[in-house]
Each structure stands twice: as structure tokens, then as C-alpha cells.
Amino acid sequence: MKKIIFILGSGHSGSTVLDKALGSFPRSHSLGEIFFFSRIITSDTLCSCGKKYSHCPFWKTKRKLFCTKHSIKEESIKKFRMHLLPFGEGGIFYRLLDTIDLTLNLLGFSILLNNENKKIIKNNIFVFDLFQHETQIDYLIDSSKNFRRALFLKNKLKNKSIFLHLIRDGRAVIFSYLKKTYKVISTDEAGELQTREYKRKESNPHTIIKNWKRLNTFLYYYFKYFLSPKSSYLIRHEDFAATPQKTFQKMSDQLGLQLNVDALDLTTESHMVGGNSSRINAKNIHAPSYKWKTGLEKGIRQNFEKAAGNLLSKFNYPV
Ligand SMILES: [Zn+2]
Description:
alpha/beta; Rossmann fold; two-stranded antiparallel ribbon; 13 helices; binds zinc ion
């Protein structure tokens, strides 16, 4: 049984740790934000194993295999596109095709009119095959989060895909976005891991609220009316963080997966692409943080509850 598990949801909802946790089970593998495949595996940023992608033995082997199978030179990987072009790029004709493509795919057809999209979807499937071919892997976890890409792939993969909607209380999401710093892991000259703090660009709370609400409303209805309970599951970040094994067992039962939840272990070696520094740092799953309850500015919280209170209730968050 080979399945691709797509994690969908808004940023700052804990998808990196969820991906890492799901990938820690025997016969499953975390891909991370694999749609950055070409950009990252040729770079000097760090793989979740702690080594630079360019030095990681796992990625070195995969890269070689990839190039042989695809008959391309290693330098050409950089040109290999895995993420769809921004909606509307390339003039009115392209936009029209893109809209028709999206509508057809929303209705469950896998017809793609746009050649560029066809090529990109083929590339994605090629990379999935790279991992599944000649391996014991049953579950590949993809936390790229891009809904449009996942939708196009779902229709191509037929019943091989599973959609997870990861939701985190929007007030905690805003609080996380508004933190002034973020951490990046790198290696120093001696090859030791170093965590550095960087200043974050200022975010507009109004935009965060709008985006959180729009995406989660869309996913709420899409999951409710377009997906079967056999191939989709809702995970609340707070439940997962508080009781990961219980959450995975429920998910595994509903989806008919064979996850051995007792084997959950974040120290298992992984080779994820992208995501935040917890892809390397996280050695266990921390209980959910409620610092936003005291730390989030009152006015922002009120604005959020006014704009998205109904949606919070739909996901059983107290308002
Ligand atoms: Zn690695």
C-alpha cells in the first residue's frame, strides 16, 4: 500500500513537526516541503539530519538516481520545477486555461489543459516515484501545504492520496507570526550546529487574520463536501501536541492505515526538505503553547474573534 499524505493548512500551525512525527514511523518517510526539491537539494542549507544538503549522503544518492533516471546533468536540477506557477502568471490566455484547469480539478477531473502545469505535475510524480521505487516505504509525507498543487496531484494519483487538514487556533497563529524573531540553524566552520536568531519582517495582523480565515474556511468546506472520510482527516494542532499517539491512532483507524503509533520517535533519522528549524531541533513533541492567552494584544484578539469567531467554533475552539 503506497500513499502520499498531504498536510494542508496555514503557516505557523506546526506542520514541520507533524510531518517529522508522521515520517518517524517504520515504512513512512517525511519529504517536508518537497516542492522546493530542486532549489534546496543543490544548496548549502541544512537537511533535517543536520548535514548540508550538498553533503548529505541520502540526498547525494537520491540526486544521482534522479539524474540517471531523468537523463539530466546534476546542474540541471535547479531548473526542475515542482511548484505550480503563481495563479495568473503569463497573460490572459494562460489565466483562462489556469482557471479552467483549477475548476476541472476541483470537480475531480485530472484533465490538465495547460502544458506547463502538466509538466510540473509529471515532475512531482516523478519525485514521488523516486522515493517509492524499490523501497519499503508505504507512506510519503508531503508538507508543502500548497493546496492547488495537492489538488492537481490528488486527481492524478487517484486513490493513492490522503489529505490532512492541520488547524491551529488562529489566535496562537497570529501570536506566532507577530514574534519579533525566528530561529535558523546552520553549521559553523567546525561543522557544529548553531542556532541563530533573526529579526522577522513586521507582519500585519489584519492580513494574517484574513489569510487564516480564508484558507481554513475553504478547507473546511472542501473537506466536508468533496472528500471522503476514508481519504481525509482533520488534525487540530493542540490535540496532536497534547496527545500525539492518541491522535495518530484515531487517524490511522479512520483512514485504514497501518501506523504503529508506539514507534513514534522524533530522534529517528530523517531527511526533510525545507520547513522551520524544528525539522532538525525537535526531538520530542511539546505540549501545546497557550502563551497567546496572555501575550496577544487585546485589540488584535478581539478583531480576530469578531472576524473568525464562527470558524473557531466550527473547529471546537472556545471563543
Ligand atoms: Zn540528510
